[in-house]
Write a structure and sequence with these properties.
The protein is 54% helix and 8% strand. By secondary structure, the protein is mostly helical. It folds into three domains: 14-112, no CATH class; 125-287, hpI Integrase, Chain A; 300-330. A three-stranded antiparallel β-sheet has the order 3-4-5, with helices on one face.
């Protein structure tokens, strides 16, 4: 095998190191870094150079964004390449692994200290219960179905967009819904079942029947999903009008994240409050790591109340029956 063929196969293999879905974002961050390198007339990527760049970025971005920048640059700079910058040639010999830069790692940890991440908005159980029961179907049926699929299946917007009528199967009184695989997430299934107070299956089936009769395509009711982020604000407005809670926040700040983040976050919060384990939450949502699920369990108010009850009962000398109420889920 000659060198040119090896180089070709090597480049092909390296191109697979970057998630295909995020390729543009990685390249954009890399190009931004290389432009700065050119402006500074840098001829070698060193720990000193990386620290200077990250310090500059930290003056503009929060810690969570900084970790994303660090991750993208770490992935791309690791690859062997010869980069031409106008009149300069920058040699990145055998790649540069910034993971080995101890000062860079210490800097990233330092900027993360005391940083409070902005959490996605979460609908609580009482909000959702009143919305499903009290909001009139003639106006809110579509949004009820979006909320049911999004929360029962912990679905992201792209997953809801790919949902089709033949992905829903009815088995008795239960709906089995299949989420299609994507480039980064494998296929998974979830079920929708009725509760004593709310007929989730009836709401979903009624909406599907309307679509089957009026829309000559196989896409689900979520064909207008591009407008869902704005439409979900209607749910919030309805809750405010019903005085279900004191919502003093700017709806405009939520933007499109309300369907991309809020439904999985709401789903995970409800599952954690109901006592589900970290593993169960991780499997349901489809997260690859248990770290995020662990965070929801640790922050669960219901779990914290159980801890408080156990401690209080132990002090009162009646802790025998309450110990079963608490599940330490880490």
């Amino acid at each position: 095998m000659n060198n040119s063929n090896i180089d070709f196969l090597n480049r092909k293999a390296e191109s697979r190191l970057i998630p295909q879905k995020s390729n543009d974002a990685y390249k954009k961050e890399y190009d931004k870094f290389m432009k700065w390198v050119e402006e500074q007339k840098v001829t070698d990527i060193s720990e000193r150079v990386m620290l200077a760049y990250l310090q500059k970025m930290s003056e503009q971005y929060k810690a969570s964004t900084m970790w994303a920048i660090h991750s993208k640059l770490q992935c791309l700079l690791r690859q062997s390449q010869l980069v031409q910058l106008s009149r300069l040639w920058l040699r990145i010999n055998k790649g540069v692994d910034i993971k080995l830069f101890a000062k860079v790692h210490a800097f990233m940890k330092a900027i993360s200290k005391n940083d409070v991440a902005k959490k996605a908005y979460v609908f609580n159980e009482e909000d959702l219960r009143k919305f499903f029961i009290d909001a009139p179907d003639i106006t809110y049926l579509f949004l009820k179905v979006v909320a049911i699929c999004g929360i029962f299946g912990s679905c992201r917007r792209c997953e809801l967009c790919d949902l089709r009528l033949h992905d829903i199967k009815e088995e008795g009184s239960v709906l089995i819904i299949t989420i299609r695989p994507s480039k980064t997430v494998k296929a998974r299934r979830f079920t929708v079942a009725d509760s004593e107070a709310i007929s989730y299956v009836r709401l979903t089936e009624f909406s599907y029947d309307m679509i089957r009769g009026n829309v000559p395509i196989k896409w689900l009711v979520l064909i207008h999903l591009d407008h869902v982020p704005r439409k979900l604000h209607v749910i919030l407005n309805w809750m405010i009008l019903q005085n279900t809670r004191d919502m003093l926040f700017d709806l405009a700040e939520m933007k499109g994240g309300i369907i991309h983040q809020e439904t999985p976050c709401t789903s995970a919060t409800i599952m954690a409050n109901s006592g589900m384990t970290t593993d169960q939450i991780q499997r349901q949502v489809g997260w690859k790591s248990s770290a995020v699920a662990t965070g929801y369990v640790e922050e669960s108010i219901s779990n914290k109340k159980n801890v408080s009850n156990i401690i209080g009962s132990a002090i009162n000398g009646s802790s025998t029956s309450l110990s079963s109420e608490l599940t330490i889920l880490i």
